[in-house]
Amino acid sequence: MSHALFAQPRFINDDAAREHLEALRWPNGSICPHCGGTERNVRLQGASHRPGLWFCGDCRTQFTVTVGTVFERSKVPLHKWVLATHLICSSKKGISAHQLHRTLGVTYKTAWFMAHRIREAMGDDAPTPLGGNGGPVEVDETYWGNKQQKGAFKQYGSRGAGGHHQMKVVSLVERGGKARSFQFETIHGGTLRETLSKHIAASATVHTDESSFYKPLHRLFAKHETVSHRKGEYSRDGVTTNTVEGYFSILKRGLVGTFHHVGEQHLFRYMKEFDFRYNTRTSLGVNDVERAALALKGISGKRLTYRRTNAQA
Fold first, then answer.
1. What is the pLDDT of residue 310?
2. Most buried pick, 9, 13, 212, 275, via CB within 10 A?
3. Residue 247's closest CA among 207, 217, 279, 221?
4. Across the strands, what pairs with 172?
């Protein structure tokens, strides 16, 4: 079955890949990325024109389906972009740049940059507050890596544990719904209040552990319930943080087993990838092909620049 899937034309032929991308981005006809025109667009098919070229009669400019996307100006064949997107979307714990480099037949540097562009496409451009459906939102923090010693991974209870020297991640998981993760330089009540109040509905019930970070939440949301891990309490009458901790287990297994080392400046892009896969998981009725299509729809209006900072809000 997988062999038949990867033999499909969009994975091996640029023209088929372009048609696939045009159908996803322009289901109702081509749209000029320069002026938004739709009525006077003409496909240029002359011998001197490269494949996939369009002309807009409104602003009199030329464009292709990759203009205004993370694929713009790439010299990598388009079918390899489509295949790379499917591979990343169908791998539960991710696929390394080295594996992409071997599978796609591109350099490691190219595969690494492709993967980051695809992760950029996975970001949610218009997130809505979690918990609006009445279900509880679980909130927890975790720590990754070692900013003092590159590549090190420390678990709680190990020498030097405590989190001050590690990268800090806070995730919000709507039970039965979506996850949203944020990277923080430092975690305290002030930074959490601003982010949580923006990304969780005021009418929501929030579940956390007993950490002092979360004490002010009862003033922000309709209800705030806690479990005491120090006392060995992990679930009480439906109050638990087991869902968000399960999400962390998938995230860390991917970071440890697939990527091994993730730099602090790039961690938030990996979090986008794991959030996206969780939010389009099979239990929500999304299969691998549909997940890849959703990622390809997200390429519009984004360009990856490494000077960009990690905006948390």
1. 45
2. 275
3. 279
4. 139, 180
Widest distance between CA atoms in the chain: 75
User: HEC states along 190-208?
Assistant: HHHHHHHHHHECCCCEEEE
Of the candidate CATH numbers 3.90.79, 3.30.420, 3.20.90, 2.60.40, the domain formed by 137-264 belongs to: 3.30.420
Q: For the chain, which residues make up each domain, given as ranges? A: 72-122+268-313, 137-264
H or E segment and range at residue 14 = helix 14-25
Which residues on neighbouring strands pair with residue 138, listed in sequence order?
173, 207
Name which of 1, 254, 250, 2 is nearest 103 in CA terms. 2
Tell me the pLDDT tens digit for each residue of 94-105: 999 999 999 999
Three-class DSSP category at 140: strand
Q: Looking at the chain, which runs of residues are DSSP E strands? A: 41-43, 54-56, 61-63, 137-144, 167-174, 179-184, 205-209, 223-227, 235-236, 239-240
Q: Residues with Cβ < 8 Å from 126, sequence gap 6 or more?
A: none
With tokens 């002010």, the residue in question is 216
Q: What tokens were used for 309? A: 């900072």
Structure confidence by residue, pLDDT tens digits, 287-304: 999 999 999 999 998 876
Number of Cβ within a 10 Å radius of residue 188: 10
Q: Length of the chain in residues, anyone?
A: 313
pLDDT at 155: 44
Q: 3-state class of 244 per DSSP? A: helix
Q: Which amino acid is at 126?
A: A
